[in-house]
Write a structure and sequence with these properties.
Jelly Rolls; elongated; 3 domains; 10 helices; Helicase, Ruva Protein, domain 3; about 425 residues; lipid-binding; six-stranded antiparallel β-sheet; about 30% helix; single chain; Phosphatidylinositol Transfer Protein Sec14p; alpha+beta
């Protein structure tokens, strides 16, 4: 222990307030926050509108023509619980036009093609019994939270679906799931179940949240072995879930994927390419934080969110900042009372820096307590820092993040909770 040399404590901030950098920081934390905001604004993507006033006249004509075609059908057609050709005396449902516009956009507003696609989708849903799949136990509980799962939402409210197939590099796991035709069919049904959960969480109304975000992890993915399954999944989703994905984020992308994408990129429309985001390994957290708040990004992707954390509602927001190469930042949490317990979580994208924590008493001449000895956090850190400390006297917690050994700027996030002493 050594006498504290930090500045005298300021008045206690709210527990979710941003910390102030101590005089030892080489750059202000506010500057880091501004940089993080600029990163977010750099994302170039404009989602399609479903508000009639925002649609060009040609799109509105195609929508009216599709409605007229559907009105000739003797049977009522409903997809995702949305009536697509309701009786003329039925009250209007604002969701109807949203779903019809999805089929039209999938076929570049060619009305007859969109009509044919819609009828095939309705027939497939009836044959597949898609409306009943949500209630089924398909025997893949151990894959949820690992292979395919809905988890949280992005900064604009879109539900996020994560996909990671690296677990199937294990031959026993591969055989258990894809060993024969029946197992493959059950897996495909389970994958549709995950997609249905995502769609059912959408609002499907003009101006609402009408699509999900897909995050696909390509790390260790056995490409050749999964070709049959991935092709079938892709075909099912393209044919039966039109325009249900607002953005596709590929993470842990190997070098050859980038080469492949650069080869096919000239053949993709600008609209399609605007939905694609590609992040190389080591750049995952920085990429995801642009679109998803850190407290909603799973821990395995550099975030703060654990699988069961969302069961009790939205988590406490994290404070975001960046650390420049060569910079050392101190996060100070002031106003801690004697007997209070402080719990904190901290994550840095890419890590590969030094981290430590100490408690500085408020009393003049007090001695600093080492709470966590300074240590090097490797790039491959599996979990965010999570720790707790009960103070015996008033003071402040100081977290140090030392990136002075690197030239690379890194995104970071942290949050804390203070439980005051009981009476």
């Amino acid at each position: 222990m050594s006498p504290t040399t930090a500045a005298s404590p300021a008045p206690a901030p709210a527990t979710d307030a941003l910390p102030k950098p101590s005089p030892g920081a080489k750059r202000s934390l506010m500057g880091s926050l501004i940089d993080a905001t600029a990163l977010l604004r750099a994302a170039s993507f404009k989602e399609d509108s479903y508000v009639a006033a925002a649609l060009p006249a040609s799109d509105l004509r195609a929508l009216a023509d599709l409605r007229a075609l559907l009105a000739t059908h003797p049977d009522q057609i409903s997809i995702w619980g949305v009536p697509l050709n309701p009786p003329s005396d039925a009250p209007a449902d604002e969701r109807t036009d949203v779903v019809l516009l999805k089929f039209l956009r999938a076929r570049d507003f060619r009305v007859r093609d969109a009509h044919a696609m819609l009828l095939r989708c309705a027939a497939w849903r009836a044959e597949f019994r898609a409306d009943a799949v949500l209630d089924e136990d398909l025997g893949f509980k151990d894959l949820e939270g690992i292979v395919a799962y809905m988890h949280g939402w992005d900064r604009e409210g879109h539900p996020v679906c994560y996909n990671a197939y690296g677990v199937f590099k294990d031959r026993d796991m591969y055989d258990r799931v894809f060993g024969d035709g029946d197992r493959l069919s059950r897996f495909l049904r389970w994958r549709v179940q995950i997609m249905e959960r995502g769609v059912r969480s959408l609002q499907l109304r003009p101006g609402g949240v009408n699509a999900i975000i897909q995050v696909t992890d390509l790390k260790d993915m056995p490409k050749r072995e999964l070709r049959a399954a991935s092709n079938q999944i892709l075909s099912l989703f393209q044919d039966n879930y039109p325009e249900m994905v607002a953005r596709k984020v590929f993470v842990n992308v190997p070098w050859y994927f980038s080469v492949l994408f650069s080869m096919i990129s000239p053949f993709l429309t600008e609209r399609t390419k605007s939905k694609f985001v590609i992040a190389r390994e080591g750049n995952v957290a920085e990429t995801l934080f642009k679109f998803i708040r850190p407290e909603l990004v799973p821990v395995q992707y550099g975030g703060l969110s654990r699988s069961s954390e969302l069961e009790n509602g939205p988590p406490k927001p994290a404070s975001e900042f960046t650390i420049k190469g060569g910079e050392k930042v101190f996060l100070e949490i002031d106003g801690i009372e004697a007997g209070a317990t402080i719990t904190w979580d901290l994550v840095v994208g890419g890590w590969e820096l030094e981290y430590g924590a100490e408690y500085v008493p408020a009393a003049e001449g007090g001695y600093t307590l080492c709470v966590e000895r300074t240590r090097k956090v490797p790039a491959a850190a599996d979990e965010p820092v999570h720790n707790a400390f009960t103070a015996k006297e008033p003071g402040k917690m100081v977290l140090s993040i030392d990136n002075s050994g690197s030239r690379k700027r890194k995104v970071a996030a942290y949050r804390y909770f203070v439980r005051k002493p009981s009476a």
